[in-house]
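for the recovery benchmark. tokens below, seq after
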């Protein structure tokens, strides 16, 4: 029987499917996949991601999936391990790694995070921190060299974009005053970037640091990003005066950035 296509003529997605089939043919007890989707385009990556997850679940094979793509890790894994310089920083369920990062490195490596200057307001295990005029519970003081839990200690407060609330400035609005500098539509979510003139050390870290507005850098004073439901954004266009508050949830604090 004539074969119309030889292996090197297959698309990247087809080649990866064949490689996966070969690996599964020997019925391994443990399957290692090292960056299997890195060379594929976005649509094929998404398709294969779902296929691999479905296969793994159906066959029940323990799978170690190595990737630098945070979306892949969070969407495919039962447990995510974050490595730094050969050391395991945290291993936990994807939801825990994202929402309850054990260290500032994990917080910035997995997704985007805002660093806002704060001051410890209450010491002890049930400590609180003051940040942009609010008092929030402290999740944990991160990693070695983090600030002591003494009253008044200066810290950086790490906040996810979805925990930042941005509303048009009105007479009754509360929060830190700011100005919208950019917005980007992302479907169900719109990312809004706000400059906070009175917050001297607010910076953006993690995967969002490369997406900030033209003419600004991650070290510029007063930059904060918020992920808002698109239907709630309204007239928050660049130049709009706004008020910024933070969701009332525990936050991670760490040593102030240099």
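predicted aa per position
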């Amino acid at each position: 029987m004539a074969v119309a296509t030889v292996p090197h003529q297959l698309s990247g997605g087809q080649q990866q499917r064949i490689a996966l089939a070969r690996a599964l043919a020997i019925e391994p007890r443990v399957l290692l996949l090292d960056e299997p989707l890195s060379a594929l385009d976005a649509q094929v990556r998404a398709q294969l991601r779902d296929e691999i997850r479905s296969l793994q679940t159906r066959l029940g094979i323990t799978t170690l999936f190595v990737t630098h793509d945070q979306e892949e890790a969070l969407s495919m894994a039962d447990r995510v391990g974050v490595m730094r310089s050969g050391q395991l920083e945290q291993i936990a369920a994807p939801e825990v790694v994202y929402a309850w990062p054990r260290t500032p490195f994990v917080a910035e490596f997995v997704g985007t995070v805002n660093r806002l200057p704060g001051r410890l307001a209450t010491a002890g295990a049930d400590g609180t921190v003051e940040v942009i005029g609010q008092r929030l519970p402290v999740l944990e003081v991160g990693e070695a060299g983090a600030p002591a839990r003494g009253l008044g200690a200066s810290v950086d407060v790490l906040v996810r974009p979805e925990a930042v609330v941005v509303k048009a400035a009105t007479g009754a609005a509360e929060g830190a005053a700011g100005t919208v500098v950019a917005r980007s539509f992302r479907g169900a979510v719109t990312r809004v970037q706000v400059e906070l003139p009175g917050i001297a050390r607010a910076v953006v870290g993690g995967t969002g640091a490369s997406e900030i507005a033209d003419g600004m850098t991650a070290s510029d004073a007063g930059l904060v990003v918020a992920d808002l439901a698109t239907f709630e954004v309204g007239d928050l266009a660049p130049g709009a005066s706004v008020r910024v508050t933070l969701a009332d949830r525990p936050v991670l604090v760490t040593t102030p950035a240099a």
